[in-house]
Amino acid sequence: MELFYRKYGNGKPVVILHGLYGLSDNWAWYGRRLGEKYSVFTPDLRNHGLSPHDNGMNYYAMVSDLEEFMEFHNIAKPVLIGHSMGGKVVLQYLKENPGEASAAIIMDISPKKYRANQSHMNILGTMSSLDLTSITSRKEISEKVKEKIDDERLQNFVLKNLNRTGKELFTWKPNVQVLETALEDIFDEITPPVNKPGIPVQFIKGELSQYIKDDDEDIIEKFWSDRPIISVPGASHWLHADNPEYLINVLEQFLKEVF
Fold first, then answer.
1. Is residue 20 scored above 80 in pLDDT?
2. Which residues are registered as beta bridge partners of 162?
3. Are strands 169-172 and 201-206 parallel, antiparallel or unpaired?
């Protein structure tokens, strides 16, 4: 599958993978900053953003897409960075392709199995409930989204996934129907590798997030990483939006260390 992507800068390769319902544009600011020293690729994962839609939606398929993406763009030994679902893609890639990445950063996700939380369900439920064929303006869609979701951040998250296909025609960028049926696979665990990755793997969590808990740290330390988990002050699961200056400093320091 040929993924849509954005590229920033030149230098050693860095690939950033977004989370569920996200898209490459969520990481544009980071791409520009890191692109001052590195070649930064931010693809849209399958069934997201401007990448193709497909009925298959699991980590094996997404890793296959990543392998194809790296081969097509001649990306060798990158640092892989993944947030949420993208972090699990990175973990599965490390498991299937030992030694093929220089290092990895996993943001606010554990390898464990999760249950879909309310914010994810609100996003998906809002998208699936709106009949875009009967709506002719972005303003009208925005008003309907606000009726269904109180949180302004989630409102903006939904509206960022709106795609204009004509003067008065709109669609959703994500493949909503497939994502609805694939949630169990998306929230499934990444089983431990036979051997711990022999590369630097840095887990980062939001200080206010509940995605990585104390018992998750034991699993991470046993199977994935010898490095202490870094906590981003004042940040929720959306740590890249909550405290960008702190996070970019962490990323820059890590890349300087491993490259």
1. yes
2. 172
3. unpaired
Contact yes or no for 46/57 (Cβ under 8 A): yes
Domain annotation for the chain: domains and CATH numbers: 5-114+189-258 (3.40.50.1820), 118-182 (no CATH)
> CA-CA distance, 181 to 147, in Å (whole number)?
25
Residue position matching structure tokens 């679902």: 85
Any bridge partners for residue 15, and if so which?
41, 80
Distances (CA, A) of 175 to 45, 77, 106, 116: 11, 31, 25, 17
CA distances from 154 to 52, 76, 94, 123, 135 (A): 24, 36, 31, 7, 20
Residue 172 pairs with which residues in a beta bridge? 162
Structure confidence at residue 103 (pLDDT): 98
Report the C-alpha gap between 232 and 227 in whole angstroms: 15
Answer whether 179's CB lies under 8 Å from 47's CB: yes
Indicate whether 133 pLDDT > 90. Answer: no
Beta carbons of 235 and 210 less than 8 angstroms apart: no
Cα–Cα dist 12/103, whole Å: 12
Q: How far apart are CA 244 and CA 207, in angstroms?
A: 13
> What whole-number distance in Å separates Cα of residue 242 and Cα of residue 130?
28
